[in-house]
Amino acid sequence: MPFIADRLNRISPSQTMAITGKARALKAAGKDVISLSVGEPDFDTPRNVKDAAIRAMEAGETRYTDVPGIPALRKAVAERFRADSGLDYRAEEIIVTSGGKQVIFNAMLCTMNPGDEAIVPSPCWVSYPDIVALAEGTPVIVPCSENNGFKLRPADLEAAITPKTKWFMLNNPCNPTGAAYNAAELKALTDVLMRHPHVWVFTDDIYNKLTYGGFKAATVLEVEPRLKDRTLTMNGVSKSYAMTGWRIGFCGAPLELIRAMDKLQSQSTSHATSIAQWAAVEALSGPQDSVEMMRQTFEKRRDMVVAMLNEAPGLHCLKPEGAFYVYPSVRACFGKTSAGGTKIVDDETFVVALLEETGVAAVHGAAFCYPGYMRISYATDTETLRDACARIQNFCKGLS
Amino acid sequence: MPALAERLNRVPVAASVQMTIKARALRAEGRNVISLTIGEPNFATPAHAIEAAHQAALRGDTKYPPQDGTLALKQAIQRKFQRDSGLDYALDEICAANGGKQCIYNALMATVDPGDEAVIPVPAWSAYWLMNELVGGKSVLVNCPQNNGFKPRAEDIAAAITPRTKWLILNNPNNPTGAACSADELKAIAEVMRRHPHVWIMSDDMYEHLVFDGFRHATMAQVAPDLKERTVTISGVSKTYAMTGWRIGFAAGPKALIKAMVNMQGQVSAGISTVGQAAAAAALDGPQDGVEEMIAAYKRRRDFVVEALNACPGISCHKPEGAFYVFPNVAGCLGKTTAGGRTIGNDFDFCMALLEEQLVATVHGAAYGMSPYLRVSTATDDASLHEACRRIKAFCDGLR
User: Fold this and answer.
1) Do residues A355 and A392 make contact, with C-beta atoms less than 8 angstroms apart?
2) What's the gap in Å between the CA of B60 and the closest CA on chain A?
3) Are B241 and B48 in contact (CB under 8 A)?
4) Which site from A159, A202, B185, B393 is most exposed, i.e. has the minimal number of CB atoms within 10 Å?
5) How would you label B65-94 residue by residue, b for 16+ Cβ within 10 Å and e otherwise?
6) What is the pTM of this model?
7) How many angstroms separate the CA of residue B329 from the nearest CA in chain A?
8) pLDDT exceeds cutoff 80 at B120
9) Is the Cβ of B48 closer than 8 Å to some Cβ of chain A?
10) Do B307 and B99 contact (CB within 8 A), yes or no?
11) B213-234, pLDDT tens digit by residue?
12) Of the partner residues B4, B245, B267, the one whose CB lies closest to the CB of residue A110
């Protein structure tokens, strides 16, 4: 019998391995590589948050905590949900996890039986379909085209629902496109969901503080409170408070699901780091001005990056509402040959040639279940971004 | 609510949780409950570990860590295995996880297909069989009787192995008995394993440093180097350095297994808390004199508790080699009636009556797969332990 379990084969092989491996090799060879592939803010964790962590470790908060998190953090999460979106969660309807990803893992492992389906709009973070498959479910990928702003159309959601559908998974704002739904757009989707009472809603709102140009990303229960008994609202401190390394995610959900997640988590990781939990309490409950400072910086970068990419021949870049990514189309470059002599046949050859010839690392769209595009993260300082965009422009100008 | 996934039904709510809930309720009524149910040290995390976490936060070590652990932590783990056990592991044979529990979970998720069997000597931490069953495995429990010091006998392990056996799970020293196998005892088990090359060995050495009276901890990969290629050795900083809340465990084993475990962790929770990793690296590399002080305290408490329990009519308590538990036999109390009029039919009845009548919380042996016993934790200050033993004596004296 093979030693490795069959379930590991259900995880798709990493699409980004080739590109990250090459970027690492070029860097090691002393090449000037600019990585626009990172999914985390370039800012440091706010000082008040670090100080809270340091106070906690000095106060001896170094013991086991409750599996679903310290009461202070569960309460802070519930209060933050209320303050930001008017959501009505009690502290016991909150679970704290080791990063947002564990919310997805817990929820899928707790609910998916073989053959159950989860609807995942694409472009998407590949962890959604991977974790669904790991839980023996079937991901149903629904493409969302650029000409609809990479947003899911209600009719496409309706068409994807079957009697086996267990979850509809929404990432708002979205990684990798930055597309976000306002209240009216989201209401059109929740109207569909109201007609299908067997479908649960997983809304990953981890980027929802990062929206620009006055746009406000809505959340499911804000626009349709009647979905409360079948909605899981996920968020975390990683992206809003530049706390990726602390590994704190959380969600609000009906008590029965929270209890099931608690039970599963008690058998996998127990609880998130106690110190990090105290840091998260401060992030959520303390002064929020660092969030706004970061948001403003991201907005300026987004505007610059979109403008510069649209000046590159062959690229077409929408200006997204949120997150810290843009998702330009590279399809007009297909069939051309780069200055370095590489024939561009798809998004992967584009990003590999771009990396080899200019040192700029982006991620090709196939890694997000939506080829023909690339994801560019602008969570990098402005001067470096400007340099990277200029290199991309030169690369595109060199295509013939 | 859609039915939860079938896999969750395989995991009952831990029996010991009932005790904890009861103890909490009594405490809430203002009763003076002494809890001997705790599985964590009552000491403080070493100051140099806290300082390292403090510095990591301040210098901005707050970004996504590599999924297998930071280089600094992995190097510290590498030195630890070399220093403590003379084991050489390459860096790609080492990974860190959110507590020792996640190492076990990752390993089982990565290897166990439905119907695969794990041989688990009992008494044991129930998490082994619960996790194994959660991932679809079958648990084959092997009794380790008191008259053999609660240690697994090679011939009993041999009898439990079938063609479907994937793992032998050893916990040395053991939770809940404190029993630890010597190098020679492990060598006898290694002989059996040589005859069954399809079986892998998981050695959970979380309590490895907590051994007394000059006993030397031994581990399978060390005493049987030829089995190293199918052995994963798990440990962590929780018990040795009083760092339970930090959630840092680690594993070392063959590269292919470690890679599969990291792959699995990438889906469960991704990397683990950076500040926790910095603290763990400092604990492993720093001065170890705090560990000596803890060992001396645990030894003193073990000696006292074993003697005090053996003075209780109806109780017989084996003196274990390590950990911070003792596992007294209460067979002599069964069938009797307490001063409060309760009949003691089994170890659960004993625990509940002891809690209700004398306000001492322990966990019954059935929760660890062997009756009629109690697990008594010595990770409590000396004064409380003395008082608890006095109450247990009074309880036993009152049995009719």
Assistant:
1) no
2) 6
3) no
4) A159
5) bbbbbbebbbbbbbebbeebbebebeeebb
6) 0.95
7) 28
8) yes
9) no
10) no
11) 999 999 999 999 999 999 999 9
12) B4
Q: How confident is the model at residue A311 (pLDDT cuts 50, 70, 90)?
A: very high
How many Å apart are CA A98 and CA B145, to the nearest integer? Answer: 39
pLDDT at A14: 74
Which candidate from A135, A245, A276 shows the least CB-CB separation from B65? A245
Is the previous residue joined to A176 through a cis bond, with omega within 30 degrees of 0? Answer: yes
Q: So what's the pLDDT on residue B14? A: 67
Closest-CA residue of B relative to A104 is: B268
Contact B98 A247 (CB under 8 A): yes
Residue with tokens 């936060």: B57
B40 touches chain A (CB under 8 A): yes
Say yes or no to pLDDT of B2 above 70.
no
Residue B354 has pLDDT above 80, yes or no: yes
Q: Which residues of B touch A276 (CB under 8 A)?
A: 273, 275-276
Give the H/E segment covering residue B325: strand B325-326
For residue B127, list chain A residues with Cβ-Cβ distance below 8 A.
Answer: 267
CB contact under 8 A, B270 and A247: yes
pLDDT of residue A153: 98
Distances (CA, A) of B52 to A50, A247, A301, B88, B191: 13, 18, 35, 26, 43
The residue to which tokens 């968020």 are assigned: A235
| pLDDT per residue as tens digits for the range B271-327 | 999 999 999 999 999 999 999 999 999 999 999 999 999 999 999 999 999 999 999
